[in-house]
Amino acid sequence: MQSFVSTSTANVKSTSVASGRLLSLDFFRGLTVAAMILVNNPGDWGHIYAPLEHAAWNGWTPTDLIFPFFLFIVGVSITFALGGAGKFENEGKKGIVGKIVKRSATLFLLGLFLNFFPKFDITTVRIPGVLQRIALVYLACSLIFLKTTSRQQVTLLAVLLIGYWLLMTLVPVPGVGYPNLEPETNLAAWFDRTLITPAHVYKPAKVWDPEGLLSTLPAIGTGLLGVLTGTWLRADRSPAEKIAWLFTVGCLTTLAGLIWNSFFPINKALWSSSFVLLAGGLAMLGLAICYWVIDVKNYRRGVLPFVAFGINAITVFFLSGLIPRIMNLIHVDQPDGTKTGLKEYLYRSFIAPLFSDPTNASLAGALTFVLIWFGILWWMYRKNVIIKV
Fold this sequence. Notes:
Blueprint: E1 2-5, H1 10-13, H2 23-40, H3 66-82, H4 92-116, H5 130-147, H6 150-170, H7 187-196, H8 216-233, H9 239-260, H10 273-296, H11 304-311, H12 313-327, E2 331-333, E3 339-341, H13 342-351, H14 358-382, E4 385-388
Antiparallel strand pairs: 1-4, 2-3
């Protein structure tokens, strides 16, 4: 990761679309990352409120929307980062592509490092992951944005979603003999077992991976919805027209996902096409609300702490995954002679005793972790420290 300190706050606090940065987009990204950290770090994994858990298989919870929201935001951000062709005249498209590939490789390797740490066992390391999927979606969507028109992007989006639906529901699964959407016997699971092998997939699932290979194709579709949304936001139209169309398209996209659910179930683990439309439509509506309130109506109260999260999103996501693992390598002696990790010890000693309900205690532990990061990122924001990947 490359760190730099800005010489002016103007580039962070600008709300102009022409400036290449929307405060509402930073806020929406920060809100999404804060939610991601919240659901990934409960005080007690055995006691979690249902909305803060993933759906067991088909269906969805608010937690299931967090990752697709982030991929959608990645797509929107691509249009602001790469949309101003004039600033790349000195580099040329070859130089731009090189930077895209380098950034994608960095994201992928950061995700792989998290999977390696702390055992660094190459025989059992999980290869896919959240950062790895972000890297692949960023790479694909950036190159598509550079090489295609918006109309071609809509066509490609349709091909990805319809093609994935047909693959998953019509192609017989080798070794099974018929197409199906069950956890361990669907086509995407077969790809994971065959190309990644069970030793390198998500350990709780054992023979498939929720960030596996085949399901990355519709995940690219989620990024493309963001690309199309970002292109619309950058268009030379009035804010009212932009918001009206975003609300209209967002509602229609959500409705299409709910309709498609009747014959291709909404499923985050499969990243089903109906899930892409549902999450993408809701993300459009969420961003439209943020854009209207923050950038058009210039509302600021309570916004900047989440902007601080959004500006250093990848940094906080990476470190929020790494630091708890480091803390759990530090063992603390217990009165009964056993040892426990430092993170678990702090939770059991200082948070859990304050609550009679273990689920409330678990939520308080997660909120405490998020608030600590709020403090760190707010300090970085005030000092204008941005860490870019």
